[in-house]
Amino acid sequence: MYTVSPIKFWTAVIHTTLTVLIGAPGQIVGHQTNQESITINSTLWEKHTKPPVVFMHKKHQEKNKCDRCHHDYKDGINMWNEDLAVLNCQKCHDEPTQKGEKQLPEAVLAKNLKVAYHTQCVGCHRTMKRVNKDTKAPTTCNKCHKEGE
Length: 149
Fold this sequence. Notes:
The chain is of the alpha+beta class. It folds into 2 domains: about 1-30; about 35-145, Cytochrome C3 (Alpha-Beta Complex). Helices cover about 35% and strands about 10% of the residues. It has 5 helices and 6 strands, in the order αβββαβββααα. The chain has helices spanning about 5-20, 55-65, 105-110, 115-130, 140-145; strands at about 25-30, 40, 55, 75, 75-80, 85. The protein has a two-stranded antiparallel ribbon with strand order 1-6. It has a two-stranded antiparallel ribbon with strand order 2-3. It has a two-stranded antiparallel sheet with strand order 4-5. A hairpin with a 2-residue loop joins strand 4 and strand 5. It is globular.
């Protein structure tokens, strides 16, 4: 018969319980809607080329449906809904190229984290500017990547 030490047993119980309650690493469960902001500071890169972005989650959430940003595409259709877990972006977009990323093959480009953020965020902000030129949605690097934040 196989026996486990009490420490290993309780460590496994606590780990399993926490995984069920708060999700596995790279996953956000329970739709943490009360988060005012999220600092986007990926561990995918050892060295960042620009400062991290402080994403005003609550502000965006008040103006957009969750699936505007959160996605899981199957055959070109976003299948993500609020009953599904929110995954960290780099869980799927795990291609790390920072310089010359636009020259990557299309299949690799879709997995590039920098391209994913800029397509999603800057793309939406540029659309907003076309609709309302007075919007404060930033579209330049230093408006999101701010020194000292």
